[in-house]
């Protein structure tokens, strides 16, 4: 400060004036507060569509499909929105991790998505899920429908039959085991008749399967088919 004085400089010249706007004056002599009692007639519009965009609607249906069966109207909405929209198809929330939950109650949705992805790299990823989850009537029927409409690679079908046989062998509860064995037997016979699988690739396993569950009527029929196709060299 002494140096500034020696230089004949006034320190007040370097102070910055902070401008503050002058507050406006209210006209009138009374002020009114908004009391809650004055707002007691509010009404909510329950018809308001919060999720009006297509992506949000499809995502909600996919989430619902993981828990329960969707309505025919909801399924049609998915078809209409995703039929020709690649962006919605890739971002709607249908993933391999959700596939097991959707299969049991909404096989038609799974079939639709696989049809839309049959030419993409994701198709094989979706198929691979089937050899990691429980074998149930729903999964077996879905594999049959997928093969009928899209032609699953024979190597995958052969491996899936192998997976089903191993799954049946590992079921502990007898009643459940018998039920699944029946479905698997019908499933294998169907693929043998349609030549979707070759008997030579599974002969040893099928014979062992038939011997293990010979008490089941459907297995006895499968054994006859296996023997007949083996003799024909199919």
Automatic annotation (TrEMBL):
Keyword vocabulary terms for this entry: Cytoplasm, Nucleus, RNA-mediated gene silencing, Transcription, Transcription regulation
Record keyword Signal present: no
Family: Belongs to the CNOT11 family.
Primary location group: cytoplasm
Keyword Cytoplasm: yes
Protein name, entry field: CCR4-NOT transcription complex subunit 11
Cellular compartments per GO CC: CCR4-NOT complex; cytoplasm; nucleus
Pfam families: CNOT11
Any Gene Ontology biological process: regulatory ncRNA-mediated gene silencing
InterPro entries (alphabetical): CNOT11 (IPR019312)
């Amino acid at each position: 400060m002494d140096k500034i004085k020696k230089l004949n400089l006034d320190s007040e010249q370097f102070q910055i004036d902070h401008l503050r706007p002058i507050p406006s004056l209210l006209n009138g002599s009374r002020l009114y507060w908004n009391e809650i009692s004055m707002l007691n007639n509010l009404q909510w519009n329950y018809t308001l569509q919060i999720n009006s965009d297509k992506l949000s609607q499809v995502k909600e249906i996919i989430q619902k499909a993981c828990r329960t069966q969707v309505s025919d109207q909801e399924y049609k909405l998915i078809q209409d929105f995703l039929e020709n929209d690649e962006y919605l198809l890739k971002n709607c929330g249908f993933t391999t991790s959700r596939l097991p939950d959707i299969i049991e109650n909404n096989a038609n949705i799974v079939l639709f998505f696989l049809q839309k992805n049959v030419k993409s790299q994701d198709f094989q990823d979706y198929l691979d899920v089937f050899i990691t989850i429980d074998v149930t009537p729903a999964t077996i029927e879905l594999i049959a429908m997928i093969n009928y409409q899209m032609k699953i690679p024979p190597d995958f079908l052969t491996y899936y039959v192998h997976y089903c046989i191993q799954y049946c062998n590992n079921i502990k509860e007898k009643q459940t085991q018998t039920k699944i064995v029946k479905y698997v037997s019908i499933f294998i016979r169907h693929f043998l008749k349609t030549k979707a699988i070759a008997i030579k690739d599974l002969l040893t396993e099928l014979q062992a399967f038939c011997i293990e569950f010979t008490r089941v009527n459907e297995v006895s029929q499968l054994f006859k088919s296996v023997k007949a196709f083996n003799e024909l060299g199919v």
